[in-house]
């Protein structure tokens, strides 16, 4: 069954491992017929040169190693965002600092390569809106950023703590103390990227200088 959130979505993907790209293609064909894969590539430059910038969402591997100038996840996210699409990070592991920097650069969520199909599809639905697609793993990564937590209100921290515990987004409001409406929870989830961007930007500056 599909709803308004399942209107046609143009998807592109960047990963330097062909079997990962093939798995993405199979997943969306089987579980999300409303998703049209318009391009896959091993690098950001290749994707954008081939028209990938017209996608609604780009799944972007966090750990591209080839070419060497695309080894910086932050730069890759910014390049895709500058072309227009929303960016959903795809990764095989959870390392809080690179994840936080990718979110600060403009990515809207995180999907593990080992995640079941329904988590990928749910993340695509949220990412297309430009809102933060917060999984339990991403919530944990954000909560371990002391600079970010210092900018969050107690109720926002409570939302992220519940997410980090694996509570579903639709159940968070009723478990809060006092309970909150789903619309209020959604509002809390829209707030983290501003302070994250400021704090991550300060940390990442020395790294960018060393790479030039």
TrEMBL record:
Keywords: DNA-binding, Phosphoprotein, Transcription, Transcription regulation. GO terms for biological process: phosphorelay signal transduction system. Residues 202-212 have a biased composition (Polar residues). The modification 4-aspartylphosphate is found at residue 61. One of its GO terms (molecular function) is DNA binding. InterPro entries: CheY-like_superfamily, NreC/VraR/RcsB-like_REC, Sig_transdc_resp-reg_receiver, WalR-like. Residues 10-128 form the Response regulatory domain. Residues 183-212 are annotated as: Disordered. PANTHER family: NITRATE_NITRITE RESPONSE REGULATOR PROTEIN NARP, TWO-COMPONENT RESPONSE REGULATOR. This is Response regulator receiver protein. It comes from Nakamurella multipartita (strain ATCC 700099 / DSM 44233 / CIP 104796 / JCM 9543 / NBRC 105858 / Y-104).
């Amino acid at each position: 069954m599909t709803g308004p959130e399942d209107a046609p979505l143009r998807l592109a993907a960047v990963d330097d491992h062909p079997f990962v790209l093939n798995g993405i293609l199979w997943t969306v064909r089987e579980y999300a017929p409303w998703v049209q894969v318009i391009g896959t590539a091993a690098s950001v430059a290749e994707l954008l040169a081939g028209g990938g910038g017209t996608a609604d969402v780009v799944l972007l591997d966090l750990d591209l190693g080839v070419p060497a100038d695309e080894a910086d996840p932050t730069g890759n996210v910014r390049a895709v965002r500058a072309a227009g699409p929303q960016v959903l990070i795809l990764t095989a592991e959870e390392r809080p600092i690179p994840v936080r920097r990718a979110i600060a650069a403009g990515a809207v969520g995180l999907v593990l390569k080992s995640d079941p199909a329904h988590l990928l599809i749910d993340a695509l639905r949220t990412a297309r809106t430009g809102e933060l697609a917060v999984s339990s793993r991403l919530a944990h990564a954000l909560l371990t950023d002391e600079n970010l937590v210092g900018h969050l209100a107690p109720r926002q921290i409570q939302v992220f703590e519940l997410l980090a515990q694996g509570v579903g987004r639709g159940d968070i409001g009723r478990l809060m103390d006092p309970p909150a409406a789903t619309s209020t929870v959604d509002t809390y989830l829209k707030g983290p990227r501003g302070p994250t961007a400021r704090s991550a930007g300060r940390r990442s500056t020395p790294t960018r200088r060393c790479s030039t």
